[in-house]
Amino acid sequence: METGHISVLATEVMTYLAPKPGGVYVDATFGAGGHSRAILDALGKNGKLLALDRDPDAIVRGEKLLKLYPGQLTIKHTSFQNLGDALIEWGEEQIDGILFDLGISSYQIDQPERGFSFRFDGPLDMRMDHSLSSNSKTAADLVNSMSERELSDIFFKYGEESRGRKIARAIVCDREKKPFTTTAQLARLAQRVIPNHKKGIHPATKIFQGLRIAVNGELDQLQKGIDIAINSLNHNGRLAVISFHSLEDRIVKQTFKKVTTHPPLTGPAALLPQPKLPPLPFSLVCKKPIIPNRDEIQQNPRSRSAKLRVLTRVPSS
Ligand SMILES: C[S@@+](CC[C@H](N)C(=O)[O-])C[C@H]1O[C@@H](n2cnc3c(N)ncnc32)[C@H](O)[C@@H]1O
What we know:
Elements: H1 10-17, E1 24-27, H2 34-43, E2 48-53, H3 56-61, H4 63-68, E3 73-77, H5 83-90, E4 95-101, H6 106-109, H7 139-145, H8 148-157, H9 164-177, H10 183-193, H11 205-216, H12 218-232, E5 233-243, H13 246-260, E6 282-284, H14 294-299, E7 307-313
S-adenosylmethionine (SAM) binds at residues 5, 7, 29, 31-35, 52-55, 58, 79-81, 101, 103-105, 128, 221.
């Protein structure tokens, strides 16, 4: 079932992250290691890379790469929300660049037993960290225990599904007869409750997105991760983030805006002539997000919603 993972915006990441030979870098989302490998090649023998992933399977898959880059690559099983501790443990608190390639890899989505996809039948799991120590709730735990209101909030807020309420009501009704345990059960419910869905888009798409975000606390972790990343950048250091849906992109865009623009003046100060403002410590590397070109989307349809945003800490004056 596994099809491998194709790194998204691979050329553009290298252009805009611009890893410098001998530099100190982090790949916050190791996945299948494609971006890590390209960064390591650019760094040369004197550079080093710390790669993180919260999925223990990704760490196991990374063992081959560890052998190819001895002494240069460190791979750690942790969430990027713990980036601060990971850097201290690694012995490098300031870094020259960091990449976040959000979401899940093809390895995760194409394995029915991980429960991420409505295209296959499998346990309704969706935990990125499914190790025993993670103790986190599965999607089935949420679907079978949350109130109608809580479920509808998840579908609405995280899935941007306008029919979230209707779906939540049907779930609460169905689970009385039989608890939800599989992805196919939930996909069938979506097909029943939303018969007139958009052509070409499975009616369970947004429900699965919402549940996955809730199960993994993805938006909170993203905010924590990029806040720490920004504060860990050396002068000229770069932070690159690839997002895959509007909720992720909004967090990245707003956080970048907050640190690259002066807050607007309010009250009487807004009416006075504008004072000369001090330069800000960060700036955008590209004003607009970078998106995949037509060829990439054709070769890798999963790249179609990707957006790359890049920020840099400006050199001290
Ligand atoms: C799109 S894949 C990355 C693919 C990778 N860039 C490549 O070229 O192979 C996203 C990876 O990030 C991991 N991930 C998602 N959220 C994470 C988090 N909060 N902390 C650490 N890893 C995370 C997922 O487990 C997944 O392996």
